[in-house]
């Protein structure tokens, strides 16, 4: 997750009231408990496969549902059953669900966990929608941004999308805690622009997170940063880490950046914990070990028995995986550094 480190460390220094301090304590306790008991740290509720974008690095983008969607109450039931520290509401594009506010309300438990993060391309996220979703219980918005200009529109196939995102950030510029993290998938066409993206986030008073492209969605390896360009990527990452130390507006840790380079070099990342540290609730309420390994399991026990025992996938190091698979000492170290 874009803010997994801060959440697991309960280190949101902007929280000052007694109730917020209590919630931070509950967050830290919940994260430690789930880690020890081997319960999921993050569950992604993919409430629809429909999407209004046609992203070049993604296999989704249909205008039609591929399965009957579950009602909001079912997602609430799944959340209570799985008891994650972080509940990510995603898709597809979750804002295409007309009942998205009710879904958020079903998942959110006021004053407690899970932390609710809504992942969106922001084409439908206007100022009024932003405040309505915050009021319903969204703690953090993860807004996709691949380029620091109109190239983002072309990549996502949504004309005017970059300016829509910029307009939203300007519309809420006086908000003390915006609760928005820009999320960039690093790939061959944009890694030279990562500093510009970090500067764009800082300019608008929000943070940014970087994750690693995988070909699992489309089978297209041309977006991978090739080995002969990895020295350039390492140089960009050094600049990003310096930017992070200077301004504190980048969530991604040095550990995750190192795994990014390793994955691009080796084209593999062993030790996948999908279904263990994280899993997915499908639009119809069934379960998958991750968004790239779609199944229809009825319970997490089925995932453990039928998927984890034979899982040999090594083809990604996405942001959720990269953060939830950390050892506890790395989680704690990264959380302290994020202060």
What report would you give on this structure?
There is one protein chain. With 339 residues, the protein is α/β, with parallel strands linked by helices. It has one domain: TIM Barrel (Alpha-Beta Barrel), CATH 3.20.20.70. The protein has helices spanning 4-9, 18-37, 72-82, 100-107, 127-136, 151-156, 161-171, 194-203, 230-247, 254-266, 300-308, 319-324, 328-337, and strands spanning 42-46, 86-90, 115-120, 140-144, 180-186, 207-212, 278-281, 287-288. An eight-stranded mixed sheet has the order 6-5-4-3-2-1-7-8. The relative contact order is 0.14.
Task: Write the SSE topology.
Layout lengths: L3 H6 L8 H20 L4 E5 L25 H11 L3 E5 L9 H8 L7 E6 L6 H10 L3 E5 L6 H6 L4 H11 L8 E7 L7 H10 L3 E6 L17 H18 L6 H13 L11 E4 L5 E2 L11 H9 L10 H6 L3 H10 L2
Parallel strand pairs: 1-2, 1-7, 2-3, 3-4, 4-5, 5-6
Antiparallel strand pairs: 7-8
């Amino acid at each position: 997750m874009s803010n997994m480190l801060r959440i697991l460390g309960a280190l949101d220094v902007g929280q000052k009231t007694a109730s917020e301090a209590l919630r931070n304590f509950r967050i830290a306790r919940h994260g430690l408990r789930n880690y020890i008991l081997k319960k999921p740290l993050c569950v992604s509720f993919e409430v629809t496969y429909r999407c209004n974008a046609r992203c070049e690095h993604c296999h989704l983008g249909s205008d039609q549902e591929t399965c009957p969607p579950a009602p909001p109450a079912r997602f609430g039931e799944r959340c209570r059953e799985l008891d994650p520290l972080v509940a990510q509401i995603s898709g597809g594009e979750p804002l295409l669900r007309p009942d998205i506010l009710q879904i958020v309300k079903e998942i959110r438990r006021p004053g407690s966990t899970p932390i609710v993060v809504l992942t969106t391309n922001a084409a439908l996220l206007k100022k009024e929608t932003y405040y309505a979703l915050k009021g319903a219980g969204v703690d953090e918005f993860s807004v996709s941004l691949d380029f620091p200009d109109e190239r983002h529109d072309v990549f996502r196939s949504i004309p005017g999308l970059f300016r829509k995102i910029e307009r939203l950030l300007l519309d809420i510029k006086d908000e003390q805690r915006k609760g928005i993290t820009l999320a960039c998938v690093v790939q061959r066409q944009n890694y030279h622009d990562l500093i510009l993206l970090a500067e764009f986030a800082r300019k608008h008073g929000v943070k940014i997170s970087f994750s690693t492209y995988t070909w699992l969605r489309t089978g297209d390896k041309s977006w991978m940063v090739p080995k002969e360009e990895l020295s350039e990527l390492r140089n960009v990452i050094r600049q990003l880490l310096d930017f992070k130390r200077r301004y504190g507006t980048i969530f991604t840790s040095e550990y995750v950046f190192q795994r990014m380079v390793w994955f691009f070099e080796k084209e593999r990342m062993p030790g996948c914990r999908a279904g263990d540290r994280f899993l997915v609730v499908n639009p119809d309420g069934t379960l998958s070990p991750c968004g790239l390994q779609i199944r229809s399991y009825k319970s997490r026990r089925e995932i453990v028995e039928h998927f984890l025992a034979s899982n040999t996938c090594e083809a990604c190091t996405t942001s959720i995986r990269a953060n939830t698979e950390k050892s506890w000492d790395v989680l704690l170290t990264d959380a302290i550094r994020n202060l």
